[in-house]
Design brief:
InterPro entries: FAM167, FAM167_domain. The protein has 85 residues and is mainly alpha-helical. It has 3 helices and no strands. It is rod-shaped and about 75 Å long.
Length: 85
């Protein structure tokens, strides 16, 4: 009986470890996607600023500077992780 308990404990510890690894991989994947999206947005802005360097690219829907200073971006606000679904 003790041997079975030890085997079950080892199996549960392996499962816990595997679950934690999967969580880390998922978090890294989501973070990588977020960085890729941000990089794409910055590249797009650079291309547009090169084309229209005379006109400012701000719109009425852009975020205020204080929000940008604390790291809030349109992507953060519209992200699915803030939804109630």
């Amino acid at each position: 009986m003790r041997l079975q308990d030890q085997q079950l404990a080892r199996q549960l510890m392996r499962l816990r470890s595997d679950i934690n690894k999967l969580k880390i991989e998922q978090t890294c994947h989501l973070h990588r996607r977020m960085l890729n999206d941000a990089t794409f947005e910055l590249e797009e802005r650079d291309e547009l600023s090169d084309l229209f360097y005379d006109f400012p690219l701000t719109s009425s829907f852009s975020l205020s500077t204080p929000l940008k200073l604390i790291g809030v971006t349109k992507m953060n606000i519209n992200s699915r992780r803030f939804s109630l679904c």
